[in-house]
Amino acid sequence: MVKSFQYIYNDEHSLNQFIQEHGIDQYPSLLIQAFVGDSPLAVIKGLQRHINRILPRGTLIGCNSNGQVIGGSIVSEIVLSFTIFEVTVIESLLQERSGSSKQLGQQLTGVLGQSDTKAFIVFASHLHLGVQEFLEGVSERGDEIVIAGGVSSDLPDKRPTYVFTNDEITSEGFVTASLSGEELKIHSHSIEEWQEVGPVFTITKAKGNILGEINHVKPIRLLDTYLGERFVSALPDSSIEFPFLLRRENEKVAVYIMNVLPDGSVELSHGVTEGDTVSFGFVDVRDSIRSTTKLLSRLKRHPVETHFVYNCVARRRYIRDVTNQELSFFNQVSPLTGFFSYGELGGTGGKPKLMAHSLSYLGLSESVREPIRDMKIDFQLTPEADVMMSLTHLINTAEKDIKELTQNIQISEEYYRSLFDNNTDFVYSTDLNGRFNSLNPSFMKTFGYTREEILGKSALNFIREEDAVRVRRHFYRAMDGREQYYDLPIASKKGEVNFFQIKNIPITVDGKCVGIFGIGRNVTKERQFEKKITQLAYYDGETDLPNKMKFREIVDEHIQRAKKKKRQLAVLFLDMDRFKMINDTLGHFVGDVIIKELSQRIQGILPKGAYLGRFSGDKFTVLLTKEVNGTTISGITQDILETVQAPFSYQGKEFYISVSIGAGIYPQDGEETADLLRNADSALNWAKSKGGNNTVYFSRDMEEEITRKVEMEAHLRRAIEKQELFIAFQPIINIQSQSLIGCESLLRWQHPSWGLISPGEFIPLAEETGLIHDIGKWVLVESCIQLKEWIDRDAGKFYISVNVSARQFQHPTFLNDVEEALAISGLPAEYLCLELTETIMLHDASRTIDAMKSLADLGVKLAIDDFGTGYSSLSYLKHLPLHILKIDRSFVQNMSDHTPDVAIVQSISTMGKGLNMKVVAEGVETPGQLELLKQLGCDFAQGFLIERPMPLEKMNTFLTKMHLVTNLDI
Ligand code: C2E
Ligand code: CA
Ligand code: CA
């Protein structure tokens, strides 16, 4: 059995009495612990002498202390604890500091450590002795010896503190009592509950126990920042309140400051190395209570016979309530003694350690006791402790928040990092002077520079000089807070230039712009593609000229400007005359070559500020924007007409082409693009309808014509009644036999005051007004009657060819009109030929073909007139019931000039023959033409060379002279 007696020392006499009373001097194995408070050396020495006198066999260890524990309460007097053992052997050792503390520890084990040694009770005089190393030395042999104890501490006025045994005393050393014996049961425990608080720091300079720098600053400066002046000035003692928590192998070790060195570095209780991370530790009251309650519950079940606590002064100060109550609970188990220390020693053989803010507990028994039943462990906290708890809670929560925040910052920083590092776009930042201060890997990859070649340099060094002004402007706008986007060509280190789309955004910190972020993407391919698309969408592939869409945009744009500057613009529409025929007979390839050369020629003579566009096929447009007036326009249109007329040569042959021009002027002919273009286009149609190779101005020429038309229409209405119309006859001969084969009726209008009017002028008017039905019917009847008369009086046997306009032909009664004319005149149908133009095919082709078939069924001959000027191709003719094909006179007349017209005439006549049609060449004016036509295989001819269209009397005379055919063979 182990038994303890506790005694508050007053004087020698009463001590003698106490010892006698309890028979303490009877026991051979006696451990005496003396906790002497702040007693000076003389008092301690007196106590030593006294004890040695009355208890010569007792083993004494003692030390100065700051609060002594007796029977569960704290007193300031000297406390003596006597523990008697039945079988356990007690020995003691005082070790003065010499050499390394570790060696002292090794030495201790060597001297006191027996095979049955169960525990060492160790008191150290000062923290700065290297207590941790001492303990490491003790545990080195690997004995499972429990260590408990405490560090004495500085007394007021820097008086030294002492540790002592029976005979020795030192202010620089350790005293140890060893407890050995098989019967001894040890119950030990350490309560040290450190909670991490504040940021994690990295040790950046250290050597052994000397900590030189944390996070690159002197530790004292860091401590001053985080823990304040009071803490720093109270070092090293204050270190036990907030030690460093060193992270080592999944463990957090409390490391204390032992000494502050003059240069601001500190000496630590543990050795540290550079790269170690530390944070601050503080005690968590709740955890402390929890641990103590656990320990007490165990003691209740397995009570010890006696026990000691070496408790931290900081616990007494900061959690006094808890400390007081826990002491009284302990005392309910068995007599308790101990003292308040400045560092607690605890743990077993494997890992004894120096602790702080902790409780080192040692329970001893030599026999087993019954569990204690009537003991309540219920900590009652005073409001003061509650505040402490709340503060602890607050610190804990705040700490958690900070951790979370730091983690979030870390996460978002990682997000940002990966956005920066893994971006395939290059990303950079510059300072306010435009100098690079960060670059992502893609930047280096894109341009082939190393980081060092770029960092610190102005971004302007890497772009073309001509872009500098623009880039600077974007930079300043971005600094103003406006996001900037722009394209920029940038050369790589190797000189390869690419196009980049750059985005600049300001970097703002605390509402202030501190730099610019730039993000760039290579858009070379996209830009090239866009260019191609634009080219395709806006430009004509063959001539590279703006197409219809682009041209409209150009006109739009210039109208906006002209509006502001009150200027005139002119739009010209150009259309090649007879171009369709060139395409059909010579092939599209030749057509394309001609179009290309034509566009170049026109482009060549256009003045500055003029735009040429290709509207469609052989239709071009010109926009004149500079010095636009009547004179300049007519000068330019004249130039165009002339340059187009110059011969084209292809494969050694020459071609002639002409063009029709329609002109519209802004603003009088249209204030909007659409109006202006439409009007210029209708002017072009007028120009075409007037035979081509000329220019028509929208309003000027057209209006004149309109007034004239209105007037003419009124007169034309009465022309039939007034017998102002008459027919002129033009003979058609067989080229081979030179005999008369037919004659064409050509209408004439003899106006009393205007004179003879050409059908070219009034027929279109008659068509527009619908008068053509009456007029056409009249011509038909008159022509049939006349031929019947000639046949009847044997004046000739030939066919009569009557022109039928499209509108007339399409009239539902037309077939009827023809039948009527034949009936009235009695002319056999085969003597009548109807001349149709290609335009009749433009409307409802199937109905037209049906009508033609009905006419052919009557026996009437059908001719296609002015062939080659329209839009039909030769190939469709075979579907029509045609007998005669009349080559337009323009081909015949151009033939002499080695033009493509020879080829055209040749192919028309060949084709006509293949389709079993007679081919008539119109407008034959020279014997040469006639000769050529003969060679080309043309059947019939008509033209001034033979006879001009003649009034009736003249025709009668002609007929008398003419060699007449007896058989109508067409
Ligand atoms: P078209 O049917 O092509 O008529 C031939 C035109 O060529 C006539 O013009 C004729 O005078 C002219 N001509 C004949 N030989 C020569 C020549 O060697 N050299 C030149 N330079 N010209 C020649 P015209 O009489 O002025 O008639 C013009 C057009 O008016 C006709 O062209 C025809 O389309 C139309 N036309 C005439 N009479 C009628 C008619 O009764 N009804 C309809 N619907 N249209 C008619
Ligand atoms: Ca005709
Ligand atoms: Ca004709």
From TrEMBL:
The keyword Ion transport does not apply. Residues 388-415 form a coiled coil. Residues 567-700 form the GGDEF domain. Keywords: Coiled coil. Residues 709-963 form the EAL domain. Signal peptide: none annotated. Residues 412-482 form the PAS domain. It comes from the Bacteria. Transmembrane segments: none annotated. It holds the Pfam family PAS_4. The keyword Transcription does not apply. PANTHER family: BIOFILM ARCHITECTURE MAINTENANCE PROTEIN MBAA, DIGUANYLATE CYCLASE DGCP. This is Diguanylate cyclase. It comes from Rossellomorea vietnamensis.
